[in-house]
Amino acid sequence: MAQWLYRVVPVRADMVGSPTEAEQRIVAEHFGYLTELRDRGVLILAGRTQEQAGTFGITIFEAPDDAAARAVMDADPAVAAGVFAATLHPYAVAVARRGWTI
């Protein structure tokens, strides 16, 4: 199974410091979506940088091909709602912490 990474960036620059109620709801749906991907065995890892200015998030996951990977990214509620802009990249985990399964 191929590995992929999608990178997300908030569309509104100050969203991290002062999200609207709608953004809070959509980001909660985004987190739920990532949890669902994990539970289905699709997600390898996800997270975001911790600075407010210039923050971005990454999701590393498995999918059989570009079309399937793009469907995973596009189904993310925050991407679909336009809260996050996303870019998709083929990826390969090269080294991981001992005990992690790749």
Secondary structure layout plus pairing:
Blueprint: E1 2-10, H1 21-39, E2 43-48, E3 57-63, H2 66-75, H3 77-80, E4 84-91
Antiparallel strand pairs: 1-3, 1-4, 2-3
Explain how this protein is built.
This protein is of the alpha+beta class. It has a single domain, classed as Alpha-Beta Plaits. It contains 3 helices and 4 strands; from the N terminus they run E-H-E-E-H-H-E. Strands 2-3-1-4 form a 4-stranded antiparallel β-sheet. Strand 2 (43-48) and strand 3 form a beta hairpin. It starts with a strand and ends in an 11-residue tail after the last strand.
List keywords for this structure.
102 residues; alpha+beta; Alpha-Beta Plaits; four-stranded antiparallel β-sheet; 4 strands; globular
Measured on Cα atoms, how large is the radius of gyration?
A: 14 Å
Q: How far apart are the first and last residues' alpha carbons, in Å?
A: 11 Å
Q: Structural class, from secondary structure content?
A: alpha+beta
Name the CATH superfamily assignment: Dimeric alpha+beta barrel
Major beta-sheet overview: 4 strands, antiparallel
Report the average pLDDT across residues: 95
Task: Determine the number of helices (DSSP H or I, runs of at least 4 residues).
Answer: 3
